[in-house]
Specification:
303 residues; alpha/beta; Rossmann fold; Alpha-Beta Plaits; 6-stranded mixed sheet; 4-stranded antiparallel sheet; 10 helices; 31% strand; binds adenosine-5'-diphosphate
Length: 303
Amino acid sequence: MTESNRIPILETTNLTKYYGKSRGAEDVSLRVYQGEIYGFIGPNGAGKSTTIRSILGLISPDRGNVKLFEEDALKIGARLRQKIGFVPSELSYYDGLTVKQLLKYSADFYENGGQARIAPYSERLKLDLNRKINDLSLGNRKKVAIIQALLHRPELLILDEPTSGLDPLIQSRFYEILREEQKRGCTIFFSSHTLSEVERLCNRVAIIKEGCIVNISEIDQLRKLYLKRFRLLFKKGKSLSEIDLKGISELKITKQGAEGLFEGDVRDLMKQLAELPLEDAVLEDPSLEEIFMHYYSDRGESL
Ligand code: ADP
């Protein structure tokens, strides 16, 4: 599908929010198309929640526009929110209810049979419906929020760090559910502070740092960047104290070998390696986390 015939479901233009003098998010421009799973990545404090809360009208941006389903969300947000499922990063619930009572109460806001979906989702995510909300762990509270967001079959899911606190089995079940949602046409906007989490799931990612978008990429494009991780094993007795290779970064030399990142045409690396006293060499694609660190973070600063 070309860019021109895809339907933008979530669009922000120069969205900016300051808290007093401190920057929450600045000039955030994003476009998420129908049926995409879109990752929104950045370290804690980068501005993900500020952007998401502005999109949903939970806080008022200082500047910029938000369109949801091609309509001006800042003017008619309430009607549009009916079509949205939202998992906030911070959860707060009514005291004293059981999980079942809370989910039934949530489902009653909608007319499309959400009640019937409570039990199957709870089973898949291993959530005990009879427990009191107050007694739940963070992970179980997240499950409640996820199910609440899914019950009314939304057209757009906005998920703010939805997996924090979920164990790996439940995470993979949750990803399975998201893929099913995508198949039925739902658009998903998913924030996380780890790129590796979303790389399996998302079609595109936007990376936000210090309030500003620093990169938007197709996941496949990120992988195609000319970056390789290499691991070298030296021949016995041939340890080297330094290696002078072009295009190398993050070089670590040990007694037995060396490892690092190479940026450039891989044939140049092979030529250079051929000059070294090697027993073995392994070349592999770096993780997306490493790619991001290499290209977009300041020296030494982590994502
Ligand atoms: P993220 O979701 O990426 O962790 P946030 O959007 O929560 O980031 O925060 C972005 C910046 O805005 C941070 O510097 C944070 O301290 C600040 N911030 C967020 N909420 C508030 C608030 N209610 N009052 C003041 N500053 C805030």
